[in-house]
Target: histidine kinase
Amino acid sequence: MIHRWSIARRLFVANLLIVVSFIAIGGTAAYVDARDRTYEEAGRRMQGVAASIAANPLVLQAAATSNPSALLQPYAKDVTAAAGVDFITIMAPDRTRWTHPRDEELGRPYIGSIDAALQGRTFTEVTAGTLGPSVRTIVPVKDGAGAVKALVAVGVTVRSVDVAFEGRLPVLLALGMALLAGGSLASWLLGRYLRRVTLGWGPEQLAQLFAYYESVLHSVREGLILIDARKRVVMYNDQAAELLGLRETGSNDPTRPPSLAELPLDSELRSLFDSGRTTKDEMVLTGSRVLVVNQGPAKGPESPGTRGKIPVYGTVATLRDRTEIEALGNELQTMQTLSDALRAQTHEHANRLHTMVSLLELGRTGEALDYATQDLALSQQLTDDMVNSINEPVLAALVMGKVAEAHERGVQLELSTLGSGAAPGVAVQDLVTILGNLLDNAIDAAADAPPPRRVELTLEADEEGLDLAVNDSGKPIDPADSEKILRHGFSTKPAGSGGRGIGLALVRQAVQRLGGTLAINGRRGAKFEVFLPAAVSAEKEHRQ
Model:
């Protein structure tokens, strides 16, 4: 049954038991202390009354007579009534009573200890007498020579003392009840708060839920990162650590989670996390990866205590790696480019065949032969130029396809090369990504500009690497946009043109991954200059 209790109920019951135990122990100690103090106060009061009576000369005078009771008994009763004591007994040194509240006890021996008083000392004791247990003080009556001539015993019964003490009990009981009520109220308020923040769950349920969450975080294939309202990374799973490179970073103190500024995040990704804005399937380029990010507010559960206001604790973001998909997309784009080139060439070839067939039908055989010869020579020359300039067949096919595409759109694509036209050790997929996107942007810009529409491609390769430059006759790039244009999502194309803001971002990512440089010159048209260093082979590095 206890295992089903919530943390709030357990805390309330535990705190209530502690308060009750504290009140019981403290109340008992206060009770005993108050009782002892009451007895001490009674003893001091009896001592004062007894000392006053012993100092009265009447007592010595009466002690010297043959019948001391005749003088002292009325006096003792008057003082008893005036002082509020239960009895005053004046006796001879041999214990013979001269005064007593009961007249029948006169002349009988005093019951109690008088040894200390006979030695001239005052003492107080609690003992049983004819009136029952009492608190009494005995004071010696001395003459001028210091001899003890009589003894004065003044006392109050224990019942009278207890009655006076019981008058203080309501205060003690009220104090205990106030402590109990205050402790119960504090426990209830704290329990109400815990019930709200823990949703009424017990520690076993929370531990089980935490174990479930831990297993989910470590098993999911998506990266998950939680950022609180103070821009601190409070949690991320294994996949997020792998995607963002966070395994050896951050604070080792779980009570001080690292801030976004302390983590080695790309500026674009850090800005997205820092903004806290809601995103859905937004692509972000970071390092050598292309990530798809979904981000939204981390809202707490709605409970009666929130009064309709759902608390927001920060943001939660999920990350998916799309690098391989983008690589496949680039390859598909390359195939699409080659397909478009073949389509353009087929269309152009069909026009030429129609021209030659028409010349033959008109009976102009010689002119048809001359036209076919010239067309074959031009086609062969273009093919020979590409093969001789670019050793890489895939890259040569890409450029040929772009030449045909540019020609179809009314743009003249010119190629000039020096060397092999390919950087040693650089993957052809990266070259296709860089060159294909640069040529696409250049052809688009030139096609939208007034004549003459031209795109110049320059390739220069040597042992150090590959220099390539793409220059178009389109609109110059605003210097203020030279940095923005390389960011993912930024585009100078009109809205709705499709494929906005991804091509140049992929170019920048590929160049950075290969350790190259990218420069933009926007004085006449747009000119993109890229340098890709050649990869050093293991054999060459060993010789060095």
